[in-house]
Description:
alpha+beta; Aminoglycoside 3'-phosphotransferase, Chain: A, domain 2; 7-stranded mixed β-sheet; 7-stranded antiparallel β-sheet; about 40% helix; globular; disordered N terminus; binds adenosine-5'-diphosphate; binds ligand LMANGFYV
Amino acid sequence: xxxxxxxxTPALLASLDPLLREWLPRQRWFAGKGAPVIGFSAVAxxxxxxxxxxxxxxxxxxxxxxxxxxxxxxxxxxxxxxxREALPPRLAPALIGHVTRGPLAGHTVYDAxxxxxxxxxxxxxxxTGARIGGLRFERDPGREIRDGLVARLLxxxxxxSSVVYGDAFILxxxxxxxxxxxPDLEIPLALAREGCARxxxxxxxxxxxxxxxxxxxAVLQPFVRGATDGWELALRELAKGEDxxxxxxxxxxxxxxxxxxxxxxxxxxxLGQSQLEPQVAGMTARLAAAVQAVxxxxxxxxxxxxxxxxLADLAGEGRTWTAQRIHGDLHLGQCLRAPSGQWSxxxxxxxxxxxxxxxxxxxxxxxxxxxxxxxxxxxxxxVTPAVPGWARLCRAAYCSGYAEFAGVDPRTDPVLLxxxxxxxxxxxxxxxARHRPDWLPVPLSAVHxxxxxxxx
Length: 456
Ligand SMILES: Nc1ncnc2c1ncn2[C@@H]1O[C@H](COP(=O)(O)OP(=O)(O)O)[C@@H](O)[C@H]1O
Ligand SMILES: O=P(O)(O)O[C@H]1O[C@H](CO)[C@@H](O[C@H]2O[C@H](CO)[C@@H](O)[C@H](O)[C@H]2O)[C@H](O)[C@H]1O
């Protein structure tokens, strides 16, 4: 079922089908690794460069069919397919396969983001505000994009794919796309409007309107040159036995700046007992599911649940909290330190596995704070021997830095903080059991601490 098919590339997807079945599940960003791929349907096919020349470029949005989900609710992925008569050896890692039938018969197809020339076609389309088929390349007219910038694909392990242009810009091409307003564009645009310098301001973006629904497909931002992410930096300092509290304090301040700007520019709501109930119910249900999935959690179940009931009790006594738009998936890896010492926060997509509507809901800012506190703990427990004292100092410095700017110290609400930290640690236990079993002791050490009613 094709919702929009450009007449210039009929049946392209059908001819790629056997190659994509083999290639797609091997991609790091493919989220459906648990079930076999049994077919595809085209959501949109757009020709960006015709394949009759030396180099063809095709933009595809494909719905992936994976049992037991019905075909029409399969995840939708964004692909950029390059087509050449022969693939130069430098592009071998990008190979998808050799096409034997259909419009690209006789061509070798590959992931075009590995190839500077097609990636530069995308930048040029953004620079000129092109409209091609259903694709809308848009830009902030107030921000300059130089032409002739050379593209290189980032090879980091990512949920999406990013291309850097001449160390001036970075384009994040979303891989699994969903209809609706994407917070990865919405939040940085809102922060830029507020003049918040902690987040690189979107310079341009790619949108599409498909079946009457809006999609955000890519976002271009200034590239922070020579940056190190917080996780790398923390591990480096730990290995040297260095103090990290000055950076932790600066990170606390940066988080507070972002939260303050978001509370000014996007809606906030008051959470009383009736609004908090579903939050607590969600935490409790996630804990129950986690205990089923990871039996090592069982001895701690009652202790962990007490973190949630303590919060529900406070709400029952009439306490209220303010919820606002937040980062939603904050950890040290989402913080970039420029050589100047300035910290930026990136990747406002939220936890990609959660539905978009949930990711866009106002939440207590402590959720981000809890994510960062967990991250200091992670760093300290990922080295041998673990250095819990290092984490304690960083956590305290981070909260102080936050309080200095926001005027509120998260430690003054220990019940709320414990509940959100517990929810994150439970999530991490499941994440590690699934993806990195060797890391399981890291969140389990926090579970041990959080399961006691008065954690320090
Ligand atoms: N503005 C930026 N400047 C420099 N590097 C960046 C910038 N934005 C992202 N990066 C780099 O790209 C990586 C992936 O970006 P991210 O938004 O986290 O993508 P994903 O959602 O795919 O994980 C980051 O870990 C960081 O190294
Ligand atoms: O960055 P993602 O959105 O893909 O987040 C997932 O992977 C993270 C690991 O890469 C994981 O983060 C956990 O490990 C980090 C160290 O590798 C640590 O800094 C985080 O605090 C910890 O939660 C994250 O939970 C997962 O969603």
